[in-house]
Design goal:
By secondary structure, this protein is an alpha/beta fold. It has a single domain, classed as Phosphoglycerate mutase-like (Rossmann fold, 3-Layer(aba) Sandwich). The chain is 32% helix and 24% strand. Helix 1 packs parallel to helix 2. The longest helix is centred in the middle third of the chain and has 14 residues. The two termini are 27 Å apart.
Amino acid sequence: MRTFYVVRHAKAGSRGNWTGDDRLRPLTKKGQKQAEDLVGLFASFPIKSIYSSSYLRCMQTVEPLGRARKVAVKSVSELEEGHGLDGLNEFLGNSKLDQAVLSTHGDIVWELVEELVTRHVIRAGDGGFDKGSTWILRAQDGVPVKARYLPAP
C-alpha cells in the first residue's frame, strides 16, 4: 500500500474579485498562514515528493512544506482544475510514488470525497474539502482503500 496526501489549496482571493488570469490568483494572508502551518501539520508524516497544480495558489500552498523538507515542488497539469479524478488517479496508480503530497483544487477534492463515499472508504460527513485541508489516502493498486481527513490548519 502507498500513501498520498491530497491537499486542497489554501485560502485564495475571491475568484469573482480577481480580474487577471485565474492561474495567477494568489493566496490571501490567511492562506499564506495556512500554507506555513502545513509544515507543522505534516511534521510527523514522511514525505518523499510534492506535486502541485501549476496554478499559483496551489504552488504557494505547498512551497513552505517543500522548503522545510528540502523537497522540490513539481508543477503538473494533471492536478489542475477541470482534470477531475482522472488526473489524480494518474498519481494514485503510479507504482513508483509513495508518501507524495498532491496540491490541487476544490473540484478535484470534491470528486475524491464523493468517490470515497461511493466506495464505502468513508461515510458521508467523515471529512470535507475546506481550503487548506488534507486527505491522507492509502491506496492499493491505484484505488483508495483507507482515508483520513485532516482539517485545514
